[in-house]
Write a structure and sequence with these properties.
about 0% strand
Length: about 80
């Protein structure tokens, strides 16, 4: 389902695929285009800083949708 929404490839290891935040941000943007998101790093991310930026941007989008703070992702989930 994620691939059909985002147009991006999802690896067999879902946690690894989501770890850089690209799929998360892309999916949120496609499903909720009216929710403004900051520019995320769309190229494959090798630097931890960029990965954590993407997870932060995804979480900011979730907050705008009304998700409670205890339901947000932490970058450490993907380490």
């Amino acid at each position: 389902m994620i691939s059909s929404v985002t147009g991006l490839t999802v690896e067999d290891d879902l946690v690894h695929s989501l770890g850089d935040g690209i799929l998360l941000c892309s999916m949120l943007h496609k499903l909720f285009p009216d929710v403004p998101l900051a520019k995320w790093h769309e190229a494959p991310v090798k630097f931890k800083m960029f990965k954590s930026d993407n997870i932060h941007i995804f979480n900011e989008g979730l907050k705008k949708l009304g998700f409670p703070p205890d339901s947000l992702l932490m970058w450490s989930y993907f380490e």
